[in-house]
Automatic annotation (TrEMBL):
This is ABC transporter ATP-binding protein. Keywords: ATP-binding, Nucleotide-binding, Transport. It holds the Pfam family ABC_tran. Residues 5-234 form the ABC transporter domain. It comes from the Bacteria. It comes from Harenicola maris.
Length: 317
């Protein structure tokens, strides 16, 4: 099946010369939930803004539902609902009118039943006659989501939807996202909460300094997370790994003082007993050991760190 969103070699250099996106290519499948992770300033909002054609790319192309966002803007945009990172709603308008008006902007006929369904799903029905300025911050965020859903989009972008949102609303939001997905809506969200990406996403993309460092099925990342590390602090530094230990997934620290062994926690045999016996046979003694489980956060931090280092190296070259 053709992807619902197809991004090719997308670059964005802002006026002033800052490159916020640097050759991003990505296909997003219909019906998936994709979480974009990345530090502040990584380019997440810029990427979303380019896909929604709010920011014009400096190079590359984006197609939504087969419609090029530049040459076929209206058709592409009509498929998209966007919940922006910044709250911006008309303060004096009522909740209900805000959402109705948003639907009208897409040239769709009024559909009170749909508007009611959306407002109810977001627990805004009781507030429908209130003016936006009378709402709390969390409720304003809900209005933004209601607006984004007013024209029944096939793709929903949520840019940091749960930043500054309380636990109850966060839970409501994720219930809503799940039910939208069940209806076949494709969802792309950005978040700083790694647990959130872990819980919600089918696929996870990591972006930093305008580059997409990785896009992976969550299950594959989870498998990486199933790995544990055993670090042995050696009694004496080791210059090289003995050939007898070549079959183990071992890494020697730069100073030769430690060996790290990676193993799968779900495997029937971890291989630790055999490794320790082989180490003893090779005459390698250790004074201490520790184990740790790698998490998505580790995977993320390592990637961002490696990305930063390779960028610095490129810069130096
Ligand atoms: N209109 C603009 N003009 C110039 N530079 C911009 C503009 N908008 C964003 N940038 C820069 O582009 C980079 C990426 O910004 P962007 O908002 O896409 O990051 P982000 O990943 O969404 O970060 P955050 O997690 O803080 O929301 C930043 O360095 C930012 O300063
Ligand atoms: Mg952002």
């Amino acid at each position: 099946m053709a992807p619902i969103i197809s991004i090719r070699d997308l670059t964005k250099t802002y006026d002033g010369g800052f490159t916020a996106l640097d050759g991003v290519s990505l296909d997003i499948e219909e019906g998936e939930i994709l979480a974009l992770l990345g530090p502040n300033g990584a380019g997440k909002t810029t990427l979303i803004s380019c896909i929604c054609a709010l920011v014009s790319p400096s190079g590359g192309s984006v197609a939504v539902g087969g419609h090029d966002t530049l040459t076929d803007f209206r058709a592409a945009r009509s498929l998209i609902g966007l919940v922006p990172q910044e709250v911006s709603i008309e303060p004096f308008e009522t909740v209900e009118n805000t959402v109705k008006f948003s639907r009208g902007l897409f040239g769709l006929p009024p559909d009170p039943a749909h508007i009611e369904k959306v407002l109810r799903a977001l627990s805004l029905w009781d507030k429908r006659s209130n003016r936006n300025m009378e709402l709390s911050g969390g409720m304003k965020r809900r209005v933004l989501i209601a607006k984004a859903l007013s024209h029944e989009p096939r793709v929903l972008f949520l840019d940091e939807p749960t930043a500054g949102v309380d636990v109850a609303l966060r839970k409501d939001m994720w219930d809503l996202v799940r039910s939208l997905r069940a209806e076949g809506v494709t969802i792309i969200l950005t978040t700083h909460y790694i647990e959130e990406a872990e819980e919600m996403a089918d696929r996870i993309g990591v972006i930093d300094s305008g580059k997409l460092l990785l896009v992976e099925q969550k299950s594959v990342l989870m498998q990486k997370m199933g790995q544990k590390e055993l670090t042995l602090h050696l009694a004496a530094p080791l210059a090289d790994l003995p050939a007898a230990l070549a079959d183990y997934d071992l890494t020697r620290s730069e100073d030769g003082q430690a060996l790290t062994y990676r193993y799968d926690t779900r495997a029937q045999r971890t291989g630790i007993t055999r490794l320790l016996a082989d180490l003893a046979a090779a005459g390698i003694a250790f004074r201490d050991l520790e184990t740790r489980q790698s998490s998505l956060e580790d995977v993320f931090l390592t990637l961002v760190d490696e990305g930063a280092r390779s960028t610095t190296q490129e810069g130096a070259a």
